């Protein structure tokens, strides 16, 4: 059975339902530290789980006969800079607890990393899986720690650790969790509501992105890939890159009166330290990563879904 921690975040709800379709509703246990909505409660098993409480996590792993743990609990880049101690606790000690449980109870463990694990000295175009990594945010530092500790436990103890470096994720029906790429979701809501958006990143700030359905499908195929097909434990994944001015132009094609303005804030420095595009050929080669949505497909689907709301 599968335990998903941090399941009420941007990725969790969709990932849990995809996993339930594939493995059965009762075999996927959603968890977080907040009360779920009625819909989420009705959709399948949901428990309280705080990644900082090892004993409580271990009780769930044993009582619920968990085989896989997917740890989505983390403070992202922007919020991590505002709450450094909390980010260190959740992203590092919380992860350490899940990794220790994976070793002790022979669990498959997946924990996301991020383009934020790269830094300003990393080559920024078509950034490869293996390259210089000197991240300059707490978030990036904790996520490179996740990668290194996960790979150590894999080599030393044989733990089946799996990790994907996600780009910015664009989602229609879930909110992003305080990252630097959140503008790419907010812009759609503002465009529909007010026909304008004041962007906290400059017009040319190009970042790697992907659409949530591709992220979820890709994560499930990575999770279920046979171990022998993995030539590495951590993989870059991305679909397309765009800048605020490029996405604004795409939206303006569909909503002609849409206008964007720019007021870069502290997140500009974070974005400028990240890759502009990722090389994810190893993920595509080893376990069939592919994105079904290109930039135009994502824009059309986002506007269609949000228009319905
Ligand atoms: C963030 N959305 O902005 C997250 C993600 C690549 C960015 O890790 O922090």
From TrEMBL:
Sample GO molecular function, one term: L-threonine 3-dehydrogenase activity
Pathway terms, separated by semicolons: Amino-acid degradation; L-threonine degradation via oxydo-reductase pathway; glycine from L-threonine: step 1/2
InterPro entries: Epimerase_deHydtase (IPR001509), NAD(P)-bd_dom_sf (IPR036291), NAD(P)_epim/dehydratase (IPR051225)
EC number: 1.1.1.103
Reaction(s) catalysed by this chain's protein: L-threonine + NAD(+) = (2S)-2-amino-3-oxobutanoate + NADH + H(+)
UniProt-listed SUPFAM superfamilies: NAD(P)-binding Rossmann-fold domains (SSF51735)
Segments forming domain NAD-dependent epimerase/dehydratase: 2-238
Pfam families in alphabetical order: Epimerase
One of the protein's GO biological processes: L-threonine catabolic process
Protein function: Catalyzes the NAD(+)-dependent oxidation of L-threonine to 2-amino-3-ketobutyrate, mediating L-threonine catabolism.
Family indicated by similarity: Belongs to the NAD(P)-dependent epimerase/dehydratase family.
The protein's name in its UniProt record: L-threonine 3-dehydrogenase, mitochondrial
Lineage: Eukaryota, Fungi, Fungi incertae sedis, Chytridiomycota, Chytridiomycota incertae sedis
């Amino acid at each position: 059975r599968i335990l998903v921690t941090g399941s009420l975040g941007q990725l969790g709800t969709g990932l849990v339902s995809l996993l339930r379709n594939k493995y059965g509703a009762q075999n996927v246990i959603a968890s977080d530290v907040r009360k779920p909505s009625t819909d989420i409660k009705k959709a399948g098993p949901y428990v309280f789980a705080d990644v900082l409480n090892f004993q409580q996590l271990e009780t769930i792993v044993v009582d619920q006969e968990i085989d896989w743990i997917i740890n989505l609990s983390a403070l992202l880049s922007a919020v991590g800079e505002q709450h450094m101690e909390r980010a260190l606790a959740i992203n590092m000690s919380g992860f350490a607890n899940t990794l220790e449980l994976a070793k002790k109870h022979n669990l498959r463990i997946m924990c996301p990393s991020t383009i934020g694990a790269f830094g300003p000295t990393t080559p920024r175009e078509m950034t490869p899986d293996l390259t210089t990594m000197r991240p300059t945010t707490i978030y990036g530092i904790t996520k490179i720690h996740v990668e290194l500790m996960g790979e150590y436990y894999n080599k030393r103890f044989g733990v089946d650790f799996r990790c994907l470096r996600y780009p910015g994720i664009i989602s229609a029906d879930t909110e992003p969790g305080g990252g630097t790429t959140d503008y790419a979701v907010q812009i759609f809501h503002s465009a529909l509501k007010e026909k304008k958006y004041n962007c906290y990143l400059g017009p040319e700030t190009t970042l790697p992105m992907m659409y949530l359905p591709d992220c979820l499908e890709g994560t499930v195929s990575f999770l279920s890939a046979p171990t022998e097909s993995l030539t590495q434990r951590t993989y870059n994944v991305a679909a397309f890159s765009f800048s605020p001015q490029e996405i604004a132009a795409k939206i303006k094609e569909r909503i002609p009166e849409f206008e964007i303005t720019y007021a870069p804030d502290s997140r500009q420095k974070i974005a400028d330290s990240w890759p502009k595009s990722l090389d994810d050929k190893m993920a595509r080669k080893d376990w069939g990563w592919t994105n079904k949505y290109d930039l135009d497909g994502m824009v059309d689907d986002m506007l269609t879904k949000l228009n319905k709301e």
